[in-house]
Structure formats: C-alpha cells, structure tokens
Amino acid sequence: MSKKIYVAYTGGTIGMRPSESGYVPGDNLMGLLEEKLPPDVMASLPEFELYEYPQLIDSSNIRPDNWKQIASDIASRYEQFDGFVVLHGTDTMAYSCSMISFMLQNLQKPVIFTGSQIPLCEARTDGLENLVGALTMAADDRIKEVCLYFNGRLLRGNRSRKLNAYLFDAFDSPNYPWLGRADIHVELNETLLWQPKGKEKFQLECDSETHVGILQLFPGINAQWMESALSQPMDAFILRTYGTGNGPDADHALLDTFAKATAEGKLIVNLTQCHRGTVHQGSYAAGSALAKAGIVGGLDTTTEAMFCKLHHLYSLGLSTEEVKAMLSVNLSGEVSV
Ligand code: ASP
User: Fold this and answer.
1) What is the CATH number of domain 212-326?
2) 26, 33, 117, 252: least surrounded by Cβ within 10 Å?
C-alpha cells in the first residue's frame, strides 16, 4: 500500500527568499515545488501533504514553544500518516531533532528533519535532493525514530550536529555511525536503527521557561566569572570542558564555586568541547576535581541533545536528583551506555 507522508514546513533556508537584509522565510512552498518539479516527477514521489506553519521562522529564533508546536502537530496527525518530514532551518536543527526525539519517545513511525543550505528558489539549491531524500526515508517503515536527513546522510536526530556552515555536507553525528545513505541505492544500516522500548503515550511536555544554561571553560576563566554565570536562575548547567572532561584543578576558588552551586542543588553536567569522544571524569586529576565538586559526567551526549534532555526532564517535573539519575539512561538513543 502506498505511504502517506505529512510534511511540516516550519521555515528555514529551504523556503527562503532574498530580501534587502538577506534571506527571509518565504511562504507558498508548495507553489515553489510545483514550479520546480514536473507533474510526472511529483507523482513519482511518496504521496505527501504539506502544511505551512502560519509563522515561518529562521531557526535562529527557535524557542521551546516552537518545539511544543512541532511535537503536538505530529502527535495529532500520528494515526493519519505513515511518516513525517519536518522542514526546518539548519542552524538549530540538531536541537529541534533532539527535543522532538524526547517528546515523541516510543515512536513507531519515521520523523525526518531536513532543510537546505541554498534555498529552493535558487538554481543551485540542495533543497530538492534533501526533500526527496527525506520523503523517501519517511516512507520506510523500518525507521521508528527521529532522524536528520541531509546531503545523502541519514543521521540519528539526537546524535546530529551542524558542523559546517558552507558545505552541503552540513551535518554529521560524530559519536554515532550514520543510520543510512542515499546514493544510487538507498541503504539503511538496520542494526543501528533505534527500536522503541515501550508503547506509552508521547510525553509532549515542554516548558516555555528556561531550565538549562550552557557554559564553556576557557584559559584564564576565574571564580568570579563562573559565580556570576551560575547565579542565573537555571536548574541545570552544561559545562563544556576540555578533552575527557578536564578543568583547571589548580584553581581552588573556581572549584569552590562549582561545589557551592552543586551543594545548593544546581545540576552541573560535564560535556567535552571536543568534536568527538566521551567524558570520563576519572581519567585525570583535573577531571576528578570536577567530580569532587559535584559535577556529573554526561558521557558522549552532544551539547544539543543534553540541553534538550535536561529541558525535557525538568519540564516533566523531575527533581534534580531524578534528572541526574536519568543522564546515563538511554531514552531515545542519545547516549552510549
Ligand atoms: N538561518 C537559517 C535557519 O536556520 C539557516 C538554514 O536554514 O540553513 O533557518
């Protein structure tokens, strides 16, 4: 039986048009597609229905309310469609894929995010290939998770990162192999695909308030700077450290600042600034010192996925101790445990 795909167009370069201040989101994407694709080519694609969001955004403007909208949109059409494509700006696509993967755990159907580096209205657009590839993946019922499809690569959404602002190869998943490829043949690496563990209803909760902040170590960072950052009214902070999770253990005032914040109930999660790898706070004394200050290792989760996982768990009303316990629980394929 032929598959029916729901396409949610949220904005992003793929549908943008030039303006005096640069590209801006553009409407009537379906009209643009009809101009680009002859009817017989259109007819050869998996059948799809495109819904254009009333407020199309450059994804640099993404906020938790947009995640609520995308997740509820998919949830409300879940029974009517076989697969879902989300057209989204590339800048924050890795965050949105991650967030939707937590809000729609136990998915039994594919949800494929894509976009483009050059708009569909331009001659050299990569948008057509990305859209057609995403539709193809969304029609494949072996996929039961949120993925990101871009330039021939199928990546797990909550493992993906935007790593290149200029190449068509904009995305990769540094800590997890690609799930598939679309070359002459479309191939999936079935052993790597996520198998949903439960059948519970989706958890669509996503607070509009900000629960999580992201901090980064840099040479010369001091206690005063860190104290002011940690005084922000957040439940949790991601601390982007060096290498396997190391920080300046010679700076006792800085370590005391971390210890004070964690003793006051703030969660500080250690993730590496490195492009690839996992945090082992015990590998060096410089990492153990952070653990002694109450900082918890976030293993190989990406910053984007950790931000969304924490935001999601706090939105569900979990306490800091409960959230801490979930860091090493693999909810949707985001962490190697
Ligand atoms: N600024 C654009 C956005 O994220 C970039 C893109 O879509 O590639 O919406």
Assistant:
1) 3.40.50.40
2) 252
4-202 CATH, one of 3.40.50.1170, 3.40.50.1110, 1.10.10.60, 2.60.40.10: 3.40.50.1170
CA–centroid distance, 16 to ligand 1, in Å, is 9
Catalytic residue positions?
Answer: 13, 90
Atom of ligand 1 nearest to the CA of 14: 7
Buried b (16+ CB within 10 A) or exposed e, 100-137: bbbbbbebebbbbbbbbbbbbbeeebbbebbbbbbbbb
Q: What is the pLDDT of residues 13-34, one digit of tens each?
A: 999 999 999 999 999 999 999 9
CA distance 261 to 267: 8
Look up residue 251 and give its amino acid: D
Q: What is the pLDDT of residues 225-254, one digit of tens each?
A: 999 999 999 999 999 999 999 999 999 999
Spans of all domains in the chain = 4-202, 212-326
What residues line ligand 1, using a CB cutoff of 6 Å? 11-13, 58-60, 89-91, 115, 117
